[in-house]
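Protein Entry — a single chain follows
Next Lines — sequence and tokenised fold
***
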Amino acid sequence: MPTEGVRNIVAAIDFSGVTDAMLTEARRQARAFGAKLWLVHVQPPGSEFVGFEVGPTSIRQSVAGELRQEHRRLQQYADSIRDEGLDVTAMLVPGPAAEKILAETQRLHADRVVLGSHGHGALYHLLVGSVCEAVLRKAPCPVTVVPVRPR
């Protein structure tokens, strides 16, 4: 039975080294609150259109193959979580990562967001920015950030 107030949790997956730890935390929260878990993987901007542009067949096939592989991986995560008895749905959405995570958080009426931090340095954040920072600043609900752990 869901705990009052926490019914939906968005877990942003990027298939990086922090994904397993982030999913462990997301599953822990979903169990604790009796909440539905939404696995959201954002495909970078532009890549979803490459396969439709005029260009070498090998490029179109490569991009389509990458999308299929990411979709399979996402579904494998969802299947594994479902096997634990949790309610989970996986989604692959195209666009800018922070913007899409925030949009899905709003659309799904998420009560929590769980995401990983890559631990990039200050120069990286100055030049590129951080998905984690943007979500933390603009999310309409609590955000759990799972840091990368050095091995």
In short: The CA atoms of residues 77 and 134 lie 25 Å apart. Residues 47-51, 124-128 have pLDDT under 50 and may be disordered. The chain has six helices and five strands.
